Amino acid sequence: MPNNVAVVTGSNKGLGFAIVEGLCSNYDGIVYLTSRDENRGKSACEELKKIGYNPKYHQLDITDEDNVKSFCNFINQEHKEIEVLINNAGILFLKDSTEPKSYQAEQTIAVNFTALVNFTEAILPLIKNGGKIVNISSSSGHLSRIPSEELRNKFRSIDLSLDELKRLMKSYVEDVREGKDIEKGWGDSPYVISKVGVNAYTFMLHRKLFNKGITVNCVHPGYVMSDMTRGGGSVTPQQGAVHPIRLALKPEGGGLYVWHDGTPVPWDGPDPRTYIDGQLSKQK
Ligand SMILES: NC(=O)c1ccc[n+]([C@@H]2O[C@H](COP(=O)([O-])OP(=O)(O)OC[C@H]3O[C@@H](n4cnc5c(N)ncnc54)[C@H](OP(=O)(O)O)[C@@H]3O)[C@@H](O)[C@H]2O)c1
Question: At what angle do helices 242-249 and 14-26 cross, to 10 degrees?
Fold first, then answer.
């Protein structure tokens, strides 16, 4: 039995759901829809079954270490290996959120960065040579979004180790806790720092896995209408899923930061967001 298996995190709704739908239609293998909440995930699977697709389901909360372990054990026993991993699960506190900033920073880094990294590292031994990893980033992951040049240099250093990157992300959360994040040049958005961290990890992982032929990329899917944006956005989840799916099936290279129009952009170049009528267009 061919071991072509794809796993998508946080795929009970939004972009992740659309990625599973697109993979079910285009990927020659088994597609896992996963979700932290079993009921939400199973009903999402049912929805896809109604329109003729047949995803498999497994519960997975990427912030839960035991859950991650048991998911990896399950995949190991059932399939031995996977070919495609799409790290999609993520959270965003919108500007009108009332939670304290320190809480927002802790949570956002914990889910978008730390859990993504820990889950990827846990499942890495099961990713087969020639496999593909796609990290769902954002326009917020562009390095130019961090005001401090010193911090930008730390993030982009090719000598940065994973431990150092984790420490850097931890120092951001501590700076927010102490009210020093703005003064130290992190900027005002935990979401930006979480996605910059995801991009830094993507390029690091690409360098590490290059010899195994495993392709690692990150992608800004566009401003996607979903619960995260309270329905705002300029593209449907299906439209936002096009390039993540392409990178999972036929990437044109690795270590790329792909923009929502499908073109790779330099991570440390100028801010690629477009301006409409003198204002930045809304792209998360
Ligand atoms: N929407 C945009 O404009 C936009 C733009 C750029 C990038 N993105 C990125 O695209 C990805 C998907 O976002 P979306 O717009 O589809 O948002 P969404 O509709 O809010 O979906 C987010 C998904 O992540 C899941 N999730 C959250 N925490 C999780 C955890 N600990 N373990 C497992 N799953 C978890 C959610 O599960 P629950 O249903 O249980 O909450 C949900 O399935 C995110 O990484 C986001 O940052 C979105």
Answer: 50
| Ligand 1 centroid – CA 15 distance (Å) | 7
Is residue 164 in a domain?
Answer: no
Closest residue CA from atom 6 of ligand 1: 138
79 lies in some domain: yes
What is the whole-number distance in angstroms between the Cα of residue 1 and the centre of ligand 1?
32
Q: How confident is the model at residue 107 (pLDDT cuts 50, 70, 90)?
A: very high
155 CA to middle of ligand 1, Å? 24
Q: Whole-prediction pTM value?
A: 0.97
Does residue 132 lie within any of the structural domains?
Answer: yes
What confidence category does residue 1 fall into, taking pLDDT thresholds of 50, 70 and 90? very low
Q: Which ligand 1 atom is at minimum distance from the Cα of 87?
A: 45
Sign of CA dihedral 48, 49, 54, 57: positive
Question: What's the Cα-to-Cα distance from 58 to each of 9, 61, 67, 233, 247, rounded to whole Å?
Answer: 10, 10, 11, 29, 23
Look at residue 274 in the predicted model and tell me its pLDDT.
Answer: 74
| H or E element in which residue 146 lies | none
Number of domains in the chain: 1
C-beta of 111 in contact with ligand 1 (< 6 A): yes
User: What does the pLDDT look like over 9-19, one tens digit per residue?
Assistant: 999 999 999 99
